[in-house]
Amino acid sequence: MELFLLSNGKLSGESELLGYAKARLQTMLQARKITSAVLIPYALIRSDYDARAKELSDALGIQVSSIHHAESPAEAIASAECILISGGNTWMLNQLLHENSLIVPIQRAVRERNVPYVGWSAGCNVATPSIRTTNDMPVRNSVVLPALNLFPVQINPHYIDAHLSGHMGETRDERIAEFCAVNPSESVIALREGSLLQVSGNDLSYFSAKDQGFKVFRHGHETQEYLDTQAIQSLVPFNCQ
Known about the structure:
By secondary structure, the chain is α/β, with parallel strands linked by helices.
């Protein structure tokens, strides 16, 4: 299994999509001799699907086609060399994955054919067991459907622990702590901007373009910041096979 789970698509001031992860992505693409990928852009609401596909083609140096052109989305996934899932609204994305009957085809492609999966923001969220730790509003509906469950732990992308002056609502830490209090058997990995988790086979690695750590939230445990993925493996059983 090959997963790239990115907190976000671009860093502040960065013009190229996936630029901070480009070296890692191209190493994987070249090693596997991948020349094309299928983009699932369903999370995009105010952006053009084909424009996003072209942006990715230019960034990665491969041919990227948007799945909305396919007569059969499931067949497009069945023949894909690589799967790219864009950021945007996680609720919209997960709903359309179900409506287009893509949950099982993606799971089979990644788990059985070892097709690389690259997801950022919403695309990162749907790789986990559910989208309950997304930051997005449920613009499509309020039903929490199962997600792809390729990665066994909930993730909160775009994590920030700043407390804005004058903001009287809950902080992100407080919101995630609430999730863990209601779901005490589950953990949440908080990924800051410019960071990613990579799964290769059963090996897990972490990268941050800003040399920042990630946090692991678990009910009854002190929340800490880590740079070593052993923290994930020691807190929760990790097995992507």
